[in-house]
Write a structure and sequence with these properties.
binds guanosine-5'-triphosphate, flat, 15 helices, 11 strands, five-stranded mixed beta sheet, Four Helix Bundle (Hemerythrin (Met), subunit A), Rossmann fold, binds magnesium ion, 3 domains, six-stranded mixed beta sheet, alpha/beta, Gyrase A, domain 2, 440 residues
């Protein structure tokens, strides 16, 4: 039997109301020992009453009792809505602990919902994404995961591999069944080809979804004084980084954030890159180079000064990275090349740069209206499955025997199940019997 757990569901700060949550088999019994009214243990109810510590009234609350399995965790659960004073909610939690509950660990309510089959693993993960979403689009994607739409994307692969695997097993183990389709080279090839194409599409969409979910890191680099800090300030529309006409003003990385077409852009203004004998500036320059290497996209800034060795150095540093080249101080330039991108950070004329970022990252809003498999874990598994499928396809073409291939097919099937957390009760016999009426 699982213990009853308790935790504060709202932030541990003073506010109008707080919610204390309990879940577990003894939950109604434990709450009855400190609630002023009787809790009906047979159905879900909302009750107004008092939290009591012996006879002392601790707070006037509303208690929501959810009869399992019709609750978030699938177990009997209670939410107590109390007044939002830390003294009150801490006291209520203490009383619950005293009466037999145990403090929940991080994510334990969600993990119980998963264990009780209320959520699959993709849905469980999306709860965190939903809470941490920083843009409306990120929230929308998380919600699509929570309602199960994302998990459904896995179904076609799961069905195809499950069918193939069962068919192979039946062919091997029950050769006497003549009415069962024979698994041959073509059948395996056809299944691999179809799924390789499908998974590649999922990964492509997932990479876009990942950008929405996690945001994107953009580093602004260039030689000193070209206006990097001014560009950061203009993009985030705030006077955050110090700007001056002294070369080497920025030494440490300055971070800013703004939302572009629903995507959180994490901007990093860096120290101007040049040869320097100033020890501290040198540290800053090394940090710039590291940031440049870690970023998803680089904005390389040049100005109206003569193109020199320092600019040359910047170009060589970014050449293998995703980058946008921008000419700042357009207000000082008379001759402009129509193939170049110009901005004037001083005059806050930077829309062309925003457009270039949107184009470079393909941040169109239509990308975000569909569910996508976008967490690092999920995408990692899919990429792994894709590699295995490509291997099985090659082996199959090279006439590797079907029983050898079946081991790889089984492993990729298990990986697909692990995406949604169903791998723990995988049973090949169950799979076969669920698909064929073998030995009815
Ligand atoms: N005319 C003009 N001046 C600009 C523009 N953008 C920046 N500046 C000026 O250029 C100088 C340097 O700007 P910063 O933004 O500090 O340059 P930086 O690249 O961050 O310089 P470091 O931090 O030293 O590497 C300041 O005097 C700015 O006011 C612009 O678009 N037009
Ligand atoms: Mg600067």
């Amino acid at each position: 039997m699982l213990e009853t757990i308790v935790a504060l569901a709202t932030p541990p700060i003073r506010s109008a109301l707080a919610i204390i949550r309990l879940s577990g088999e003894d939950c109604f019994k434990i709450c009855s020992s400190f609630f002023s009214k009787k809790i009906n243990v047979d159905k879900s109810t909302i009750i107004h009453g008092y939290i009591l510590d012996n006879d002392e009234k601790i707070d006037e609350v509303v208690l929501l009792a959810y009869k399992g399995p019709k609750s978030f965790t699938g177990e009997d659960s209670v939410e107590i809505i109390s007044h939002g004073s830390p003294i009150i909610f801490n006291q209520i939690i203490e009383i619950a602990l005293k009466n037999g509950a145990r403090l929940a660990s991080g994510g334990e309510f969600t993990s119980r919902a998963y264990m009780n089959g209320k959520l699959d693993l993709i849905q469980a993960e999306s709860i965190n994404d939903l809470i941490n979403a920083e843009s409306k689009e990120a929230k929308k994607i998380a919600l699509m995961s929570l309602d199960g739409s994302t998990s459904k994307l896995i179904d076609p692969i799961k069905n195809d591999l499950g069918d193939l695997l069962s068919l192979i097993e039946v062919n091997i183990d029950y050769p006497e069944y003549e009415d069962i389709e024979e698994v041959n080279k073509e059948k395996i090839n056809e299944t691999m080809n179809k799924n390789i194409k499908y998974i590649k599409e999922l990964i492509k969409n997932g990479d876009k979804g990942k950008i929405i979910r996690d945001g994107i890191n953009v580093a602004i680099v260039g030689k000193p004084n070209v206006g990097k800090s001014s560009i950061l300030n203009a993009l985030i529309d705030e006077d955050k980084a110090i700007v001056s006409n002294i070369k080497g003003t920025t030494r440490d990385i300055v971070e800013g954030k703004f939302i572009l077409n629903g995507v959180v852009i994490n901007l990093f203004d860096t120290a101007g890159i040049r040869e320097s004998d100033d020890f501290i500036e040198e540290i800053g320059i090394n940090k710039s180079i590291k940031k440049l290497n870690d970023a998803d996209l680089i904005i390389a800034v040049f100005d109206n000064s003569n193109f020199d060795e320092e600019d040359e150095e910047i170009l060589s540093l970014i050449k293998n990275k995703h980058h946008i080249i921008v000419k700042n101080k357009a207000d000082l330039m008379n001759n402009k090349d129509k193939n170049e991108l110009y901005v004037s950070a001083l005059n806050k004329e930077i829309d062309s740069l925003k457009k270039a970022i949107i184009n470079e990252l393909n941040l169109s809003k239509e990308n975000y209206s569909n569910p996508s498999i976008s967490s690092v874990r999920e995408l990692g598994i899919l990429k792994n499955v894709l590699e295995m499928m490509e291997k099985v396809k090659r082996d199959n073409e090279n006439d590797v025997s079907i029983d050898l291939l079946s081991a790889d097919i089984k492993n990729m099937y298990l990986l697909i199940l692990s995406l949604i957390g169903e791998d723990h009760d995988f049973d090949i016999a169950k799979e076969i019997f669920s698909r064929f009426c073998v030995g009815k």
